[in-house]
Design a protein that fits this description.
single chain, 246 residues, mainly alpha, Helix Hairpins, 2 domains, four-stranded mixed sheet, 5 helices, 4 strands, 76% helix, rod-shaped
């Protein structure tokens, strides 16, 4: 059975308390509500970004359609203006003037059809531009919310890290001068047993596993010398005696 000064064993409980606090702070840092909120906002921002790209593409396509429709209408108008100018000049034979007049009528119908197409595309463009503005606004709002929550996360993390730094300094003092073998055993057990390598023996109960020791084990522990390092038969943790009233 390993040995270590009884005072060192009792001081080990202080180290354990500080290690437990560090574990709690690390857990708190990993599970900040801001982190879940940021993840939620990231998903929403991502969805809206996809919608934003789709909407922008649709608007650009419709703008090209409007430009083409306007060009088609302008082409017909220009042709009609040239024909009208030739008619107004009186140049050409009667047959030529009649052909020009017939063409003007055809161009007028064609212009009417093209203007309807132009109007329909412009209406679609207007609707898509409004939708794009709405998606852009929603995207900006979510990005703004994310920025705010990220600031809250950073503040919370800084607060936790500052406390953890203080606790680590306290732990360094608490472990300084302790029996090296005792500390090594404690660290090994802490790694194996979920962060708790030492526990107080209070009455007949181990405060690590919260189980009562059987009378035979308890008698063996009580018979051991004060500097013997005893361990719980149930969980294997170092059992610190003489601190049950601390």
């Amino acid at each position: 059975m390993a040995t270590a000064p009884a005072a060192d064993q009792r001081r080990l409980l202080d180290v354990q308390e500080l290690d437990t606090r560090l574990d709690q702070l690390a857990h708190k840092r990993r599970t900040l509500p801001e982190l879940a909120r940021i993840a939620e906002l990231e998903g929403q921002v991502g969805d809206l970004h996809t919608a934003l790209v789709t909407s922008r593409t649709a608007v650009e396509d419709l703008r090209r359609e409007v430009a083409k429709a306007e060009a088609d209408v302008e082409q017909v108008r220009s042709r009609a203006a040239r024909d009208q100018a030739r008619i107004d000049s009186g140049q050409g034979t009667a047959k030529d003037l009649q052909a020009l007049t017939s063409e003007l009528e055809s161009l007028a119908r064609r212009q009417g059809d093209l203007e309807e197409v132009e109007l329909e595309v412009m209406e679609r463009l207007e609707a898509h531009e409004k939708a794009l503005a709405d998606v852009s606004s929603a995207h900006e709002q979510l990005v703004g919310q994310r920025t705010v929550v990220e600031g809250e996360r950073d503040t919370a993390v800084a607060t936790i890290d500052a406390e953890a730094e203080q606790v680590r300094a306290q732990r360094a003092k608490a472990v300084d001068g302790l029996d090296a073998g005792l500390v090594a055993l404690y660290e090994r057990l802490r790694g194996q047993l979920g962060g708790q390598g030492a526990a107080r023996l209070r009455g007949n109960r181990c405060e690590g596993c919260r189980l009562e020791l059987n009378p035979l084990d308890l008698d063996t522990i009580r018979a051991a010398s004060a500097d013997q390092v005893v361990r719980c038969e149930e969980c294997g943790r170092i059992l610190v005696r003489g601190a049950d009233e601390a």
